[in-house]
TrEMBL record:
Bias (Basic and acidic residues): 242-266, 273-365, 394-403
One of the GO BP terms on file: mRNA splice site recognition
Region (Disordered): 242-403
A Pfam family this chain is assigned to: LUC7
Entry GO CC: U1 snRNP
Protein name according to UniProt: Luc7-like protein 3
Length: 403
């Protein structure tokens, strides 16, 4: 910082090109170079406002050149020039916000000081008695802590815990006594300040504390101080530049409207051009409305398509599930039919056996010798020549029944 201050001092005394050779060609200054201070070119550098004050920002690391500042002011409006102005306003706004927070905290502090303290202040005897109680409690707490440590070393945990609980209660009583003493001291201080009848106020510009009704000389000294003058200049510059920028924007808007009206009058003039403009605007609105309606219809179509697709998927899944259920039911039915056929076949065989047994019993009851099956589908016929023909017919009839 000291080196920069010395360099700036030499530049002011001997010029910026003090270290250049006599035969060296000098470079023309350009306000767009990054070595020059943007804030100084726009209005002023805030680092120069609060030198050797509590709000000191230090030495600016950029170059302050009046010639470059003049070039900046003469330059045509451009994006970079507007950017420099915007950065200066942003920095001023940041510093103003900081001092506004300082002013608000100062007012809160004054409100707290002017508020009435709780309870009457303690007398000298009460204060001495309070200090004695605090000292006794401190000695008792230290002795209890020592006894608890001894009990812990002996292994008596319950006694140590009880002593520590008693110690905690004594600490709470000590804190209450200290709080009472502090409140009494604060109330005495407030009463002393009220007795002196020196009411304070906060400066609305720089946030410094001022005595209400102070001597005019001290008030003038404050108003002419660097900190107050610096913040006043900062606020004034910010307000002026904001108003100028708003006026410039309004002027641009007015010129734009005039140019638009001039173009309308040059195209057709009079009411006809206005009517054509309104018709064209109406057509544009209708076109936008149709486009939005078309977009809504497309969205509805997409939703319907998605709904149909989902319904087809659901229908196909239902058909597949129904076909699977029908197939399972058919298989179960076929299994039941097959089982029923097997049972029916078994019952037919059992009935056939019953009929054969009944027939054998009938033949035996008529005095005829029963016949025994020797092979499948054949019977052995006894050697009675008279009944051979009758038995042959009976055998054929039995074969027909079996088949």
């Amino acid at each position: 910082m000291a080196v920069l201050a010395a360099a700036q001092l030499l530049d002011e005394l001997m010029g910026r090109h003090r270290n250049t050779n006599p035969n060296e060609k000098l470079k023309k200054p350009n306000w767009e170079d990054p070595e020059y201070c943007k804030y100084y070119m726009v209005k002023f550098c805030p680092h120069d406002l609060f030198v050797n004050t509590r709000a000191d920002l230090g030495v600016c690391s950029k170059v302050h050149d009046d010639e470059v500042k003049a070039l900046f002011e003469k330059a045509e409006p451009s994006y970079k020039k507007a950017q420099h102005v915007e950065e200066f306003l942003r920095f001023c706004r940041h510093m103003i916000n900081d001092v506004e927070r300082k002013i608000m905290k100062g007012k809160q502090r004054l409100e707290l000081m002017n508020s009435k303290p709780e309870g009457p202040p303690m007398t000298q005897a009460q204060s001495e008695k309070n200090q004695e109680q605090v000292q006794l409690l401190s000695e008792k707490i230290s002795s209890l802590v020592q006894e608890a440590e001894e009990a812990g070393t002996r292994g008596d945990v319950e006694q140590a815990q009880g002593l520590m609980k008693l110690c905690d209660r004594l600490k709470e009583e000590k804190e209450q006594l200290l709080k009472q003493q502090e409140n009494s001291h604060w109330s005495m201080t407030a009463e002393l300040a009220a007795a002196q009848e020196k009411q304070m106020e906060v400066c609305p510009v720089c946030g410094a504390f001022l005595i209400v009704g102070d001597a005019q000389q001290r008030i003038d000294d404050h108003l002419s101080g660097k900190q107050h003058v610096g913040y006043f200049k900062l606020r004034q510059a910010y307000e002026e530049m904001n108003e100028a920028r708003e006026k410039e924007q309004q002027e641009k808007e007015r010129k734009r409207r005039e140019e638009r009206d001039r173009e309308r009058s040059s195209r057709g003039g009079g009411l006809g051009s206005d009517r054509r403009d309104r018709e064209r605007m109406e057509r544009d609105r209708e076109r936008d409305r149709d486009r939005s309606d078309r977009g809504d219809r497309d969205k509805d179509k997409d939703k319907d398509r998605e709904r149909h697709r989902s319904s087809r998927d659901d229908k196909s899944s239902r058909d597949e599930r129904n076909s699977r259920e029908e197939k399972n039911s058919r298989e179960e039915k076929n299994n039941r039919d097959e089982k029923g056929r097997h049972e029916e076949r078994d019952r037919d065989r059992e009935r056939e056996r019953e009929r054969e047994r009944d027939r054998d019993r009938e033949l035996g009851s008529h005095g005829k010798s029963p016949h025994q099956p020797t092979k499948r589908g054949t019977f052995e016929i006894k050697a009675n020549p008279e009944d051979q023909e009758q038995q042959t017919d009976e055998l054929q009839r039995l074969r027909g029944d079996i088949e």
